[in-house]
């Protein structure tokens, strides 16, 4: 793609963060060197049963691990650093540079995952510069955002300077007094910037995003007029908001109890680094709160998004060991629900109200403000940086499209920008920008045990949707059943009696074996004992699936556990689980068990059991 055959193009490959808010992960590649920018996580949707973390598809990085020279981090939000431990488990990142708070939070994460010896974590200050590989020379430029210590990046490459804004708003009165270094961005703009990658989160919002300080008078009024206990929830990482709340507590003579591990953690780091200044005696552990009158208490808690395990959610369910809501409590949501969390949040609000709390929430109260710039802020960024080429990032598709329109409105020609998706390879030369192909993109899911493969998730969704139907049968080497096939249903709604379905399925299995046994004895696929067990299993599965579809009008997960007792007393256990819905007769080994619970065998996430057969002793099978 390069116009100069001697000079390769600079490749920009976002693996996450586009067409979504979350899992921001970007690759910059020049020659044979890769620089990583951030590695975040996303959060699972409701149909991702049991999934804790969503990561981008990292195939490209696994395959090009030898090119990775290092990573730079813009700030400490989970959608920018949460994925780093999962990366380090799969490939080396020799060094990670980032602002102090982000590096402190990352250090914690790596300690917890026992990965802290896997990379070198290096804190930088604004305007610090670092070299990574031969091709990348990076300058950190302070910006303003909802977390302290957030940066834009000016990345010098052999083709020119790439500015990556990170997440930003333009806050002229920052709570910590650390101003956006707009001067430095403008200097780069004057010298010439090849390409700008800019945060698109609020590209649909007209005007300017108000300063974080704008919430202070409104929260102050609530403190001044509340008589009972005050519980306030916000994002744990919103250091500036937390600082305002702590300052108001001190002003109004309330002691503060912090509930929720992530909130405690970020406050500790922010105090260490000087982003929050308050006296030690402001804080009391929640077990000691009953020594104080209600009107002298502030409980600062996680759970602003209705997260199932967060402290406020547990409090709302009456499940928190030490904090119970009582008449006269006031609960303040100093955060708006992220799209997708609205139902969880309103349910939490309902439960709190039902227990007698006065709950304050909603945009009209002016107690939350976004950490991302709006349209006029974007225009200012574009005007200061004056990039030749532009790529909107960090946003859903419509936000990227709006952001591109804004770039056109300030004079960047259409042909100098691309609106892209995760996995697109943006190629930039001195003269042009374009999409030069794709790398694998999508998601990788993680639960408590490890990677959740696509088929596992599909099985879980099917189980949750339509339940499971389990068939267990034991056959001898002559095709005779040692006992009638056992059929059980779990979570299945049946239009006719369950017993009728059970007999129908059992009869189908018996008839198929009786009528067609000779075909499987003659089959060219027959195993050591002369019988094509795999073929028989596939036939049984598709027959059961057809029957189930016809009779139940639903698509439960069908688990077939077939145990074969050969004439030589060797046992071939053939367990299979498959979905009736897709008619896929390949089958997957479900585990050793011949019972319905075998369906769990494949949910360990390693996927290794797929298509595998096991031999077991006669004694084991008989037991
Ligand atoms: Zn972000
Ligand atoms: Zn952020």
TrEMBL record:
Its EC number is 3.1.-.-. Binds 2 Zn(2+) ions per subunit. It is not clear if Zn(2+) or Mg(2+) is physiologically important. Binds 1 Ca(2+) cation per subunit. Seen in 1 crystal structure, it is not clear if it is physiologically important. The active site is at 199 (proton donor), 372 (proton acceptor). GO terms for cellular component: cytoplasm. Residues 593-609 have a biased composition (Polar residues). This is Ribonuclease J. An RNase that has 5'-3' exonuclease and possibly endonuclease activity. Involved in maturation of rRNA and in some organisms also mRNA maturation and/or decay. Zn(2+) 2 binds at residue 79. Zn(2+) 1 binds at residues 75, 77, 80, 145, 167, 394. Substrate binds at residues 368-372. Residues 585-623 are annotated as: Disordered. GO terms for biological process: rRNA processing. SMART domains: Lactamase_B. Homodimer, may be a subunit of the RNA degradosome. It is an enzyme of class 3 (hydrolase). It comes from Rubidibacter lacunae KORDI 51-2. Keywords: Calcium, Cytoplasm, Endonuclease, Exonuclease, Hydrolase, Metal-binding, Nuclease, RNA-binding, rRNA processing, Zinc. SUPFAM superfamilies: Metallo-hydrolase/oxidoreductase. The keyword Zinc applies. Ca(2+) binds at residues 50, 447. Belongs to the metallo-beta-lactamase superfamily. RNA-metabolizing metallo-beta-lactamase-like family. Bacterial RNase J subfamily. One of its GO terms (molecular function) is 5'-3' RNA exonuclease activity. Residues 22-219 form the Metallo-beta-lactamase domain. Its cofactor is Zn(2+); Ca(2+). Coiled coil: none annotated. It is found in: Cytoplasm.
